[in-house]
Amino acid sequence: MEAIRPAPEAVERELERVAFDAAGLVCGIAQQYDTGEVLMVAWLNRDALKETLLTGRVCYWSRSRGALWRKGETSGQIQRLVEARLDCDGDAILLLVDQTGVACHTGRRSCFYRRFGKDGLETIADPLVTPEALYGH
Length: 137
What we know:
The chain is an alpha+beta fold. The protein has helices spanning 8-14, 46-55, 131-135, and strands at residues 26-32, 38-44, 59-62, 67-70, 79-86, 92-99, 114-117, 120-123. It has three helices and eight strands, in the order H-E-E-H-E-E-E-E-E-E-H.
């Protein structure tokens, strides 16, 4: 699928419509563009969203590191942006992506690998790769 890339002047203008929270962040939901599989949730600040829209490589804000986090920069499991959508309130971004490999740091395809069952949480997806293989430690 051909990715939609907005012009730089359109990105600057439309970033004003995003309702960033008090910390300057907006929730981003990454979904595989062709299957609908929800892969992960992460946070974007203005710079991360701008970079994502302009380059097509998904970039988040790492709250733990306090820095931009380009998905896959250490693991090689990158997300290529196909399309970005802003919700009706402007406080969430749906990122339709083409995920290379796994999305979860646990080595699973999706971060949503546990469900609430009758006896508590159940694991419904096993790792496809070890975290050690992903991150080299």
